Amino acid sequence: MAEIRIENLRKEFGAFSAVEDSSFVVRDGEFLALLGPSGCGKTTTLRMIAGLELPTSGKIFLGGEDVTFNRARERDIAFVFQLFALYPHMNVRKNIAFPLLAQGVAKAEIRARVEETAKLLQIDHILDRSVSGLAGGDRQRVALGRAIVRRPKCFLMDEPLGTLDAEFRDLMVRELRELHNRIRATTVYVTHDQLEAMAMADKIAVMNHGIIEQFGTPQEIYNRPATMYVADFIGSPPMNFLRFTGGLQKGARSVIVDGVDISVPEIHLDLAESELALGVRPEDISFSDVSPLRGAVFGSEYHGTNQIVAVEMGKGLVKARVPADQKFRIGETVGLELNYDRLSLFDCKSGRAVPSSRYAEHHHG
Amino acid sequence: MSSTAHSVVEPSVTSKRVAATIVVAYAVITMIPLVWIVLTSFKSPPDSISYPPKIVFQPTLEGYCNLFTTRTRQTPEYIISLGAPTSTCDEITRSRNMVIAGPSNYWPRFQNSLVIAFGSTFLAVSLGTLAAYGFSRFKVPLAEDLLFFILSTRMMPPIAVAIPIYLMYRQLGLSDTALGMILLYTAVNVSLAVWLLKGFIDEIPREYEEAAMIDGYTRMQAFFKVVLPQATTGIAATAIFCLIFAWNEYAFAVLLTSGAAQTAPPFIPTIIGEGGQDWPAVAAGTTIFVVPILVFTILLRKQLLRGITFGAVRK
């Protein structure tokens, strides 16, 4: 197992820039999720780590060794493809043994290691079956088996759960995380599904248009989104933005939105008059008759344990997550209370979070 | 009574019957010449030219005997002096006042056909597979133009270049050699092979090779261990097309071969000239000539069908 270090990685396809100047470190044994919409550069980044694409510039280190221009087969990594890429003309056993054959491992040892791996993944009963007849979950496990049997420096996975149905996906998410806890292999996992990333990863890198918007633990990403993009991409429904124009002084503890004074965590920066947005998660909004921040109920979505209430605020809808038993009439005027120490403030022009006491312990470039 | 709810997937019984009738009729029509040839090969020479044609006749192996032997006419006294005939063919030949002088050239010509057709098919498919893989997977400079150029070699009948090829072959000493014919048929077939196989290889996801390369194999190893096994259907279909062309080719064979490397197609008509129009022998030669391609096609008919419809149906 090894640490993965990416330095100023760039990849251009002709005039199109797929990955722009990315740098990050995946520590030994860590599980990193590369999260973003399709076309954001996450798969390209993964393929560069694997050696399936060569970067336009930048460096890749595996376990301290510069492997930027090494061939895929020289990198000692394992890759799980979205469609698994199980060799259709071989049975399960041969599929799993395939990487060991390349290494020239002795026959008896191949047998032992394949069986050990199969046991770990609970697929020892299908070892002699053809891969073409396998169900989605078993194909997934065989693909994982082929990856772990060789004990590589790291695992790279490209949306391996993308084709499974929802129910099965939850099961595989648990299995994957358990497997990771057991073998502690450095893993880079590409997904567009924030729930998968949140549930499995130690660290998440949120990518957009080839840029890493934020790199941090799931908690950091959720609680202190570094950019409006991250705030909007993570969370369902996403963070609400209350846009306003104003200037800020270092040390300020409140902002004025729609003429209402709202307490915020202490601001750590002077800001000239500009477009700003107050970011608030739906669960940090509650209803209060005395609050001066008012709007009209637009509709609600019942979720069983809670409900999402949309409130028309004049500049757009604000969604609040409130207990399911609260009753609202459409059009009813309500007051919104914001949980002030959970608020984020963004500069709309740059899209970046304005440093405040909430963000103090976390400075991300 | 009439139902308006027609199933989208299941054709009606009537349309199925009509379709079946058309298919059977077409099959019968195409089979008639072949049946005619096979029947003629078992007729005696007088039966073969009788008019109206005989449907019922006394079958004989005379055509096959005449195909494989050369014969000389002898006096009845001489034939009686030879004693008992040693084989069926011997007996048939003597009944026509002839004796077997030796084997004919049919079998060597047939062997030439086998060597040249299978040799050129193997070469065309091998080269075609490698080229198709290259075009399918790598950024080949001017790939579109090269592919068009390869296709353009089929835009005129190959025989249009017969004279330059004849002159070149004479200069190079390739006239009437198996090597020369193999190279010629390979050159004609390789363009078909590249285009057909590129279609098949394009359908094989790259992930398989990428997985193999990550698993520790070189691209070459990945090609042989992972791509080739999955391309077998396409390779088989392409091989049949190439083989049929090389096996049946007549014009170049007439022009460029006359002796050592002569194939069966130009040889069979020469039988007519040898002592009268021996149609049963010609028919026998044709019947035997059809057998290998028939066996090959029956063995690979699934692949052949897929080869014809490839691209039209996705799995």
From TrEMBL, chain A:
One of its GO terms (molecular function) is ABC-type transporter activity. It is a peripheral membrane protein. Keywords: ATP-binding, Cell membrane, Membrane, Nucleotide-binding, Translocase, Transport. Its main location: membrane. The keyword Cell membrane applies. GO terms for cellular component: ATP-binding cassette (ABC) transporter complex, substrate-binding subunit-containing. Residues 4-234 form the ABC transporter domain. The keyword rRNA processing does not apply. InterPro entries: AAA+_ATPase, ABC_transporter-like_ATP-bd, ABC_transporter-like_CS, ABC_transpr_MalK-like, ABC_transpr_MalK/UgpC-like, Mo/tungstate-bd_C_term_dom, NA-bd_OB-fold, P-loop_NTPase. It is found in: Cell inner membrane. Gene3D superfamilies: 2.40.50.100, Nucleic acid-binding proteins, P-loop containing nucleotide triphosphate hydrolases. PROSITE patterns: ABC_TRANSPORTER_1, ABC_TRANSPORTER_2. CDD domains: ABC_MalK_N. Belongs to the ABC transporter superfamily. This is Carbohydrate ABC transporter ATP-binding protein (CUT1 family). It comes from Phyllobacterium bourgognense.
UniProtKB/TrEMBL annotation, chain B:
Belongs to the binding-protein-dependent transport system permease family. SUPFAM superfamilies: MetI-like. PANTHER family: ABC TRANSPORTER PERMEASE PROTEIN (PTHR32243:SF52), MALTOSE TRANSPORT SYSTEM PERMEASE-RELATED (PTHR32243). The lineage of its organism: Bacteria, Pseudomonadati, Pseudomonadota, Alphaproteobacteria, Hyphomicrobiales. Its main location: membrane. PROSITE patterns: ABC_TM1 (PS50928). Gene3D superfamilies: MetI-like. This is Carbohydrate ABC transporter membrane protein 2 (CUT1 family). Residues 110-300 form the ABC transmembrane type-1 domain. One of its GO terms (biological process) is transmembrane transport.
